[in-house]
Amino acid sequence: MRIGELSGATGVPVPTIKYYLREGLLPAGERTHANQVRYDERHLRRLRLVRALVEIGRVPISRVRELLAAVDSPDRGLDSTLGMMNRALRPDDIEPADPDEVRSAIERLRALGYENLPEQGYVQQVAKALATLHRFGHPNMQGLLESYAAVAMTIAEIDLATVAGIGDPEATVEAALVGTIVGEALLVALRRLAHGTVSGRVLGTKGG
Amino acid sequence: MRIGELSGATGVPVPTIKYYLREGLLPAGERTHANQVRYDERHLRRLRLVRALVEIGRVPISRVRELLAAVDSPDRGLDSTLGMMNRALRPDDIEPADPDEVRSAIERLRALGYENLPEQGYVQQVAKALATLHRFGHPNMQGLLESYAAVAMTIAEIDLATVAGIGDPEATVEAALVGTIVGEALLVALRRLAHGTVSGRVLGTKGG
Asked: What is the ipTM for the molecules in this complex?
């Protein structure tokens, strides 16, 4: 297909595709005898992944390049590539937590079956949340970590089951990215809406 | 207790407490014969709630006043007060979704047992997420709403069970607020960490 068709199939404007080609995020097309450049399914798959990284993941171009190199590296396991993607998706603005609180959070999480825990990023967010619950929360809430840790593991199993069957590494990374970001927005919104449903049932004034 | 003790017990600085008194968010203390002002448990409970609304919920003072009026209104059910609090906690920056997509999202959510759905806010976020999944997501993801809707309902049941037993309306609203905001940060972080755990199990290269 021509560059215009590549654009039509992905919604990525032609000048953006040309920029990705110049930046090496997309391999060059094949120059045909008619002096036209042809692109194939491989370009389409790669462009879809780049689009998801940039538009949904808001991953900077330099990190996109690193991630694509990992996707293309046959020695690198898919698990390791997804871990790299997850780090690229982590917001920069997670506030650092107290190191003692982080250590304690890691210990509690390990006891709850969490593995491969990073020392930064979301572990800090867990530590901060636990400290805030301790400071502001009702005593009833001290068991919240245990309940939430179990539910979050269920969600991760749903998420991994969704992507594990895809097979093709490029499409898997793309689906994992979309699922991570869009799934988070979906989950947060559904939890808030579910509060309204369950609150009506649990606390609603009968016949009111 | 004196204003300094009220400050010590809550961590709210004395000038901020004086500001809340002037704004009517905290009832005046009792002026004793020694010409001192005394505060009691009632002030402490109210100040804790105001602190949670302002510091954790980032609710503007005018909305805090409305919410406190609702808490103090004996005719108003706790369910209705919590609904008001949830609306106050909703971020302003939820992008509006296409009205047809919102209608379709509401229909799908109703079929999944969701009740008391607002027409704005998080329903829009669900509609946007579904549209993005439709546009970018892998076909495997089209059932994500159903799975997530069930999990979110489980989470809401955990959350409501945590606050339903508290009894005192002020402490219930405070706990619900802390649980909504801090619980969201906790859940988002745990889901990301659980991805690392489950990904290692599902996709990890054995012996690698």
From this structure: 0.90
